[in-house]
Specification:
The structure holds 2 protein chains of 2 kinds. By secondary structure, chain A is mainly beta. Chain A has strands at 3-6, 10-12, 18-25, 33-39, 46-52, 58-60, 68-73, 78-83, 92-99, 114-118. Classes of the chains: A mainly beta, B mainly beta. Chains A and B meet through strand 5 of A and strand 6, strand 7 and strand 11 of B.
Chain lengths: 120, 113
Amino acid sequence: QVQLVQSGAEVKKPGASVKVSCKASGYTFTSYGISWVRQAPGQGLEWMGWISAYNGNTNYAQKLQGRVTMTTDTSTSTAYMELRSLRSDDTAVYYCARDATYSSSSLDYWGQGTLVTVSS
Amino acid sequence: DIVMTQSPDSLAVSLGERATINCKSSQSVLYSSNNKNYLAWYQQKPGQPPKLLIYWASTRESGVPDRFSGSGSGTDFTLTISSLQAEDVAVYYCQQYYSTRPLFGGGTKVEIK
């Protein structure tokens, strides 16, 4: 069965960086992409970006350009999302979700979420 | 960006009654070459990740009860729960995946009256 398992909760200080992992299993990793979505406490869903696990192409939300990097390691079927220069409003649950290979599509499987808390 | 606007923000429906959620996009998400609407609906229960309910505006994901249905085309879409059950209490989101930045709507909270 398809599973996306994310790394554990993180607490970071403002200005630091965080790298969240998302390990996929149960499907051919390089036949799909991965999207990252975050949700601030009590708020809605915010699309952060997408990466193709096939060729590494990326597409980021404009507001995060320059602070976010999404990568994949096809040898371990793992996707990563790194966010730099953290601010308090980056406090959120971060989700990875399975997406299409060449462009965004509906997100059919989701990770369990990773809480990132940014606090001094 | 194609902005998605959901209404209402919340609604309370009696058990067994119909719940209707609306989603409007700032531009059409209908792709003319394949006549598909690039619109999905998700359900999120407290403490859980979102769950895909509907894609291509009206196709139910495998395992989703048939009381959930999606309709609409172009810029106006609706998610209908035909007979609300207690386990349907959740926040529902629409998302367009027509553009390279697939934004979500703000969400609609469904509660029991």
